[in-house]
Design a protein that fits this description.
This is Antibiotic biosynthesis monooxygenase. By secondary structure, the protein is of the alpha+beta class. It is built from 3 helices and 4 strands.
């Protein structure tokens, strides 16, 4: 089974750029410690300081699905409506 690639792109609401940066940053350490996490990197656009992207690689889709139920992701989900204008999620595999 190929590793799962996930790319999550998030756009902050106007004036909430630093709040989203902090919220996203709080996910990095706990997620990297999770079973099955191969890479988990947070990026911020040079052109748009309110645009963030996570690039992730997981051993398998079921392990990523467990990640999505983790306490830190659940807490993130409860706060996202306050700071996120839009988001997009890609899941696939490296060819």
């Amino acid at each position: 089974m190929a590793a799962l690639t996930v790319i999550a792109k998030l756009k902050a609401k106007g004036g909430r750029e630093e709040d989203l940066a902090a919220l996203c940053g709080s996910l990095v350490g706990p997620t990297r410690a999770e079973k099955g996490c191969l890479t988990y990197d947070l990026h911020r656009s040079h052109d748009d300081p309110g645009l963030f992207m996570f690039t992730e690689s997981w051993e398998s889709r079921p392990l990523w699905e467990e990640h999505m139920k983790s306490p830190h992701l659940v807490a993130f989900g409860e706060k996202q409506d306050d700071v996120i204008e839009a988001w997009d999620l890609f899941t696939g595999e490296k060819l």
